[in-house]
Amino acid sequence: MGTFLITGATSGIGRAVALRLAEDGHDVFGVGRDEARGEEIEDASPRITFLKCDLSEPDEVEALMDGLKDQNITLDGLFNNAATFGRPGTPERLPASAFDEVFDLNVKATNRLIQRALPLCATGASVVNNAAIVGHVKFPPMLGPYAASKAAVIALTKTFAHRLKGKVRFNALCFGPVDTPLSHKLYGGEAKFHEAMTHHFRGNAAKPEEVAPVVTFLLTAGSSYLNGQAITIDGGYSLS
């Protein structure tokens, strides 16, 4: 069994992935900012350890990874899942500052975590980055900074995959709409989100539990020949 580090682990896709890995017998370090939700996920499985960290703060990321290093932790996988949509707005009017918060978390923190995690990774370990379809096949005009950040995550994924040449694998998952609190916030509330999803091919978005097995597959040895890919998981949403 392996040991995995999951960011954004206290809700949505990250939580579903952490629970799935734990159910499969793996040990999980789940990173998040909300201590109450961190306690909840620890209570859900004795194999999950919550680590409090604001990933947009470089010093906190350094302290997080120093702690794992001091414990002589060997990682079999990392799921960079935590992200922010930022402030929606028309691209021709968004100030440059609108990119700062989004890129600090979605790109810079992801890169920083990868850099610090690599010395802890076992040979054959896997890094999966949440890239979202807006960085790959759908480019909503009101989410310019978010889309740009996710396109950067795909480029980062492929760059690291080329550099590590299979010693550590890197893949990006480009999720379509998933029924999470973050998605609800983007659409202005849960009811509005579900109303919008009636236009999806199947009439509703994915549940986190539906996409979690794809992440755990990529994190583990069954996907050993998948490397450097950006894979769309959207139920056909991007075809419309």
From TrEMBL:
One of its GO terms (biological process) is bile acid metabolic process. InterPro entries: NAD(P)-bd_dom_sf (IPR036291), Sc_DH/Rdtase_CS (IPR020904), SDR_fam (IPR002347). The keyword Oxidoreductase applies. It is an enzyme of class 1 (oxidoreductase). Pfam families: adh_short_C2 (PF13561). GO terms for molecular function: diacetyl reductase ((S)-acetoin forming) (NAD+) activity. It comes from the Bacteria. Its EC number is 1.1.1.304. Keywords: Oxidoreductase. Gene3D superfamilies: NAD(P)-binding Rossmann-like Domain. This is Diacetyl reductase [(S)-acetoin forming]. It comes from Exiguobacterium aurantiacum.
